Amino acid sequence: MIGASIGMRAKRTAHVLGFDADATNAEEALRRGAIDGLAARDELYERCDVVVIATPPNATCEELRRLAGVQSACELVIDVASVKAPIVEAARGVRNFVATHPLAGSEGSGPASASGNLFEGRGWAYVASGDAQLDATACAFIERLGAMPFACDAERHDRMVAVTSHLPQIVAWALADLMRDAGDDYEKFCGPAGREFLRLARSQPELWKEITELNAPEIVPATLALERALRGWISTAVPDRDR
User: Domains along the chain?
Assistant: First the structure.
């Protein structure tokens, strides 16, 4: 979904080629107009000025390790994974690479859920590469997609998204289960907040399993802090509960 959304927006000003190991996804991206044509994976690094690796985080790490030390013709390689420390480690030795994360998305997956306006006005984090010109190229590309780039080191990124994205996703699953247990007509009682949690709960569990496992060192402390906050609320609201 992220990759196809990038393709849709980039097509406004560029010729876009794509590759997907899943032939069905590749054909759907072509049918939806997310790409102009298909190419072999290695061909992308020779024919394209910019290559976006838009795969789940473990697959992204595998691709980056495969590219280490490879001399390609592209001017910029970026990823879009929602964890950054493992990506930066895997990318050591990859030419012209900048680790990035668009702070946009939806509960949908695959090219069928893509939108060319997904990144409009949204923040897009990147980890400075140490090469000012390369970082400027990455920022210019991000801005062409309608987003607002900002620099952040990998460790702080992962600590922040643990609280702002990853923990809310875990809470959404838990709350959705509670809502369903409350009665068959639970959706009638949902306001905007309840509907938003239900929307998040429909997110792809396989992808989120990878994300939460990779960022567990940051998510666990955040979860424990939330638990303490909830227990604090209980002790305030119902002070005699433990007596």
Answer: 2-152 (3.40.50.720), 157-237 (1.10.3660.10)
**CA separation (Å) from 33 to 168, 177, 217?**
32, 37, 39
Written as one letter, the residue type at 65 is R
The tokens of 46 are what?
């020779």
Q: What is the pTM of this model?
A: 0.91
pLDDT tens-place string over residues 179-230: 999 999 999 999 999 999 999 999 989 999 999 999 999 999 999 999 999 9
